[in-house]
Each structure stands twice: as C-alpha cells, then as structure tokens.
Amino acid sequence: MVAPRSFYQWLDTLKDGNGRYLLQTDVKTASGASIFGIPVYKIDDDLFWAKSDAHAFIGDLNRAVFYADRAQITARWVDDTVYGHYL
C-alpha cells in the first residue's frame, strides 16, 4: 500500500471492534508499518495527488506500472461477425 501522509494519518486512527489500532508496527517490512500484514509506505501528499487528498494505492506496484516500447507495439483492425470491426 502506498499512502500519502494525509491518508496515513487517517489510517493511524482506525480501530477494530476490540479497540486495537489496525495500523501496526512491523519490524519485518522495510516501511516499518503494516495493516492486515500488508506493508504501508508513506509518501508526501503532493507527490502523486493534490494536497490533503486521502487516497491510497493498494496493489502490486510492479504490475501497476506499464512500460511500453513504441517499436514493439502494433495495432490493427480486426473483422468480427457481431461487432463489425474493432481495434
């Protein structure tokens, strides 16, 4: 999980039904904090989002970033019996 400071502060206040905080310190992760076993990385607010937006990215960062090589990408029209042509 990649979270700006504003989302991280909100996440730090969440508690479960027993009154325990959901954000736990975790010595096994590089970030030092985790929620449900998922490491949480804190970034500046204005790095990806506008200031004070409480948004976070949850998922695999390696699969989220798409590196395209223009020389290897091709597009063409294909005939289809139902839809006609599609790209």
Could you explain the architecture of this structure?
It is built from three helices and seven strands, in the order βαββββααββ. The protein is of the alpha+beta class. The chain has one domain (2-86). A three-stranded antiparallel sheet has the order 2-3-4, with no helix packed on it. Strands 1-5 form a two-stranded parallel ribbon. Strand 3 and strand 4 (38-39) form a beta hairpin. The radius of gyration is 20 Å and the shape is elongated.
What's the gist of this structure?
The protein has 87 residues and is an alpha+beta fold. Helix content is 17%, strand content 23%. The chain has helices spanning 5-11, 45-48, 61-64; strands at residues 2-4, 23-25, 33-35, 38-39, 41-43, 78-80, 84-86.
What are the salient characteristics of this protein?
3-stranded antiparallel beta sheet, elongated, 87 residues, alpha+beta
Low-confidence stretches: none
E-strand count: 7
Instruction: Note the gap between the termini.
Output: 34 Å
Strand content: 15-25%
Write down the overall geometry.
Answer: elongated
Largest sheet: 3 strands, antiparallel
Major sheet: order of its strands?
A: 2-3-4
Mean pLDDT: 80
Q: What Rg, in angstroms, do the CA atoms define?
A: 20 Å
Structural class: alpha+beta
Quickly count the helices: 3
Name the helicity range.
10-25%
Q: What is the string of SSEs from the N terminus onward?
A: EHEEEEHHEE
Q: How many domain modules?
A: 1
